[in-house]
Amino acid sequence: MTMAGSDSMAHAWTIKRLFYKRVSRYWKEQRRVWGTVVDWVVFCYLLFPLLIAGVVYAGWWADPPAWMAAAPLWAAQLPPMLLALGARLRTFAEDADVLFLQRSAWRRGLLTYGFAYTAAVLAVPVILIYALLLPFLIGVHGLQIPEVALLLVATWSVSLAGGLLRNRILGRFRGFRKVISIGAANVLLLLALLFPAFLTGGAQNAAWLGCTLCGVATASLLLRGKLRQDGDFASDVQLEHAAKLSSTAFLVRDAVARKPLIRLDKPLLFRRSQRLFRSTAPSVVLAEHALKWFLRQWMMMRYWFGFLSLGMFAVSQSPLFAQIALVLGIPLLVNMMVHNYPLNFTGEAFVRQFPWEDRDLRAAGERTRLLLVAPIAVVLGAVAGYDGFGLLGMTGGILFSAIYIWLVNNLTAAFGQLRAMRNS
What we know:
Layout: H1 3-12, H2 15-35, H3 40-62, H4 66-70, H5 78-86, H6 97-100, H7 104-132, H8 134-140, H9 145-172, H10 175-194, H11 201-228, H12 233-244, H13 246-251, H14 282-296, H15 298-316, H16 320-338, H17 341-345, H18 349-352, H19 358-423
C-alpha cells in the first residue's frame, strides 16, 4: 500500500464515523450474546406475557381497578425514579484512546456523541414507562396530554442530569467520599422527581417546568465541565467495560462453578420417600419419581407458580373474550415447558441405571404432564367461570378446563409417538 493510500484512509476516518463504528460493534456483540439463549421457544415464553399485559392494559383503560383508583399521583413517579437512579452516561471510551486519540477535539467529539446517544437511548424507557402509566395519569387523575408530556420531559432531563452527575462522581472520588456523593446525588434526584407530584393545579405544572429547566441546565453544565477536563478517562473506560459485559454477566450469573453446599436440612416437600401411587407399573414408578423431583426443585416450582399467579391475575383483570384466550393459551405454554421433562429426568444417575422401555417413558411423560398442567388449567377455568357467571360458571369452567387439558395431553402424547416413530 502506498503512502498516499494510507493517508487517504486515515483522513477518511472522522469522529462521527468512529463513534458509529463503536456503537454498531457494541450492538452486534449484544445481539450475538442474546442470540445464544433466545430461540423461538424462549421468544414464545416472552411474547405470551406481553400479550397478557396488553390485554390487562386495555382493561385498565376501560375499567381501572380499585387499587389504581385509590393510589395517589406521586405513586406514578416510583418507576421513573428507578430509571433516574440507574441512568449512566455512555462514552464508548476504549483503552487505546489514550495512545491514539491525543487530539482533544477527537475526545470532545466522542464525548458529545456519547451524550447525544445517552439522551436518545434514555428517552426510550421514559416514553415506555409513561405510556404504561397513561391509564393511571389520564384515566384516574385526569391529567391532560400536555401535562403528561411535561412530566415525561422533566423525568427525562432529570435522569440525564443524574447520569452525568454519577459519571463525574465516579471519576473524581474514591472510598467513602464516593459513597456519600452518590447517596447525596440520589436524594437530590428523588426529591426533584417527587416534590412536584405533591402540588396541585398551576403550581404543579410550574414545578415540572422548573424541574425540566434545572435538569437541562445541570446536564449542560456537567457536560461542559467534562469536555474541559481529562482526569476521568480511566473511569470512563472502566464504566464502558462494565456496560459492555453487563448482558454477559447477567446471562452467566448462574453458570459460574461454585463449591457445593452441604445441605443438612430436608426438602420442603416429600421429606420421606413415601409412595404417591399404589401401582408398581414401571411407567407409574417413573412418573412418581419425576413428579417428586419436580416438586423438590425450587427453580421449576418458581416457574410453575409464576404461570399460575400471572395467569390468575390476567384472567381476573380481562374481559370475557380475553379470559377464554388465556384459559386456552396458558396451559399450552405450561405443557410446552414440561413436555420433555420426564425424558430429561431419566438422565439422572439413579434413574439411568435402570432399563426403561419407550412405552414406559411415553406413559410416564403423559401422566407427569397431566398432573403438572391440570391444576393450572382447572384454577384458571374456575377463576374465569366465577368472574363471569358466579358459582355455576365456576363449575362449568372447571369441567371445561379438565376436558380441554386431557385432550391436549393426549394430542401431545400422540404427536410425540409419531415423531419417535419417524425418527426411528
